[in-house]
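Run log, item B.
One chain of 659 residues. Sequence copied directly from the ordering sheet:
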Amino acid sequence: MSLLDSVNGPRDLDRLTTAELELLAGEVREFLIENVSRTGGHLGPNLGVVELTIAIHKVFRSPDDPIIFDTGHQSYVHKLLTGRKDFSLLRSRGGLAGYPQRSESPHDVVESSHASSSLSWADGVSRALTRTGRTDRHVVAVVGDGALTGGMTWEALNNITDDNDRNLVIVINDNGRSYAPTIGGMARYLNRVRTAETYRSLHRGSASLSRRLGPAARAVYRGVRGGTHGFLSRFVNNVALYSNLDIKYLGPVDGHDMPSLLETLELAKSYGAPVIVHAITEKGRGYAPARSDEADQFHAVGRIDPITGEAIGGAGSGAWTDVFSEELVRAGEQRDDIIAMTAAMLRPTGLLPFAQQFPDRVYDVGIAEQHAVASAAGLAYGGLHPVVALYATFMNRAFDQVLMDVALHKAGVTFVLDRAGVTGPDGPSHHGVWDLAMLQLVPHIRIAVPRDAERLREEFREAIGVEDAPTVVRFPKGAVGADLPALERLADGVDVLARSGAQDVLLVGIGPMAHLAMDVAERLRAQGIGATVVDPRWVIPVQPSIVELAASHRLVITIEDGIRVGGIGTRVRQVLREAGVDTAVDELGLPDEFIDHASREQILADAGLTAAKIAQDVVSQVLGTRIPVARPSADGDGDWTAESVDAHDHATPGRDDRS
């Protein structure tokens, strides 16, 4: 039986020697490469924290000692050590989540996979344990060097130093990268520490000597290391980083040297006050294809060949991100005022080609979305037009800056939101389903949702032409569908995609959901129900032609892949009421719930966002057997009367199968 087979919980590590723990690390790496290559997932980050995670679980007593991961994509090793070894459905419905999840294990504390929040959590948990008398317990926060670029980390450190009477260990997993190489002044500083040969040779030499001299010398080494680190660190000026924080600092320690990790963590555990342990690791450790991947060391992969690391499966059609990336470069060639910005996601958001062509016109601010947005307002004030590219889920973090720094000051800033709507396997905190409901609250904002590649190109061009208000262009994850040409473009820019039969139902397809609306219209036509399909293109503000079309139809159906509560459908209904149009509106979208990991198709089906389900419901609404009911046709045709509607209201009040 392998060592990994014998470990079904953290306390199974207690009986293993240091040499056996090192062998276990090798088995864990083999397991990760074999299993994640089948399912896809965050491979590189987890290969880099194998020894570190084993050492943490050896020294501390999870779950009594809570372990908090920032951001959590590096928690696969933690899952293995806490008894979760079935990776066959990793990030798929019914399988393990790609991030910590409380429903899986009491060892998982924080589920959110947004960076830089772990120290705030650790601050709160450690204060609670101290205040309630549980002073024998420790809190361990594992934070990457990339997360140190986020402002929340420093806000938390400032507060942690204000109360030093608690057992809090902050482990900095320093691999020099977040998604890609970590940027900024902090990154340059840590890089000097990481690569300083003087410090490395002194540290390794002292550790090696203590091991050769036996247990007594090892005890002396553990006792004096905390006191001498300041002297040694002056060779690289490392003491300057934390000297003003009043937090004990241990390191840097080789994050793949098991004896050194165990010694350092034991010392941190015994200190009785907040301690920072600085561990230097290698992303993708032990897997040559990952280490040779210059882009991101296999940060996140699809299905790959475990031997070569090559992707399995065809290339497929072009991605939304690629279309935006190409159009941004074209815009940059034509306008030298275009500036690209992102928050530690240069490559994932498609900015790399622009950066390669215009290196002095790209700002990557690190994991600091709030700063990015406020800084963009300043750039706009200075006469430039910033294009801020983020994942839609991370836009949540900068709402106040969009509202008060950009919109209030009428700044011409374009936000490009990638991975909008349902993203699938990354789970609740990565779905980009809140952006439409959240951003439409901002006065004078303009939001575009393209349905295909051609519309993305033209709507992005229109967005960067606006200089007196924020604009948003949002698109989903994955491949772009086929172009869907319009029958007609109305004067205010709304595209009419289909007309069939009488003006019974107006289907408003928001962006890519226009394809679904077209399918619904065809099914309705087969039932003898006329349908008009439109794509607003610019969903906020609601265009006048949408109001006019709604007034001439019996029923309006809006379809979006954002949450229904406060979504575009809600805005359309409000605008119709303000205009005195009483056509019933059924707003279809996603529930206001945290949606678990599953495929996009599964999640949309759960929400009733399939052509068959929508068409079935619309037929019932036209017949008057489902609320909201369609109003009578202009010529008085229809199987229902006011009396039958009244009877229906009494029989099935408020019935809605999607709720």
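Observations after the first pass:
- The chain has 25 helices and 18 strands.
- The first strand starts at residue 67 and ends at 70.
Flagged for discussion on Thursday.
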